[in-house]
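Sanity check

After download, print the first record. It should look like this:
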Amino acid sequence: MRHRKKGNKIGRTSPHRKRTLQALSNALIENKKITTTVAKAKELRPFVEPLITRAKDDTEHSRRQVFRHLQNKEMVSVLFDEVAERVGNRPGGYTRIIQLGQRSGDGAEMALVELVDYNDVKPTGSSSGSSGGTRRGGGKGRRDTSSDEASAEAEEEAVGSTAEEADASDEDDENDDEAEK
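Expected structure tokens:
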């Protein structure tokens, strides 16, 4: 049974794992986005998000609690001054993990970890709020008539060109039959 064995050991002993997550957290707070392996990224999220939540309440006690994990005074001040201001009313989910594919050297799955509120470009495939339509029926109710007319004209042109090509190929076949005789 794997009761109470939450988390990945990422191939390190306990103190090494603690320092790795500490270094990744410091780099994320400093640079606002980092590239690492998927396993480290998945372990980093539950480590750093409670620190960001604690940074919303700027007290001496919360600063000491965060410093206990980060061990870097500059990053603590950046976290409490800059990052906490940007994520002020967000109720959680401060980080985003975007999978990048495999690393060329050893084939390890790579990921980009970024602070959500510092991303200027929205990732592809995501929408802001509701799209206003339904997923059923391929969105038939949301098509505008101009695109329908354009697609209908394109289909007619395609059908017309294939009909002309078919007539031309029939004539070529007739000419080939006459040439053989």
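If your output differs, re-run the checksum step. Summary of this record's structure: Helices lie at 14-31, 38-55, 60-70, 73-86, 145-180.
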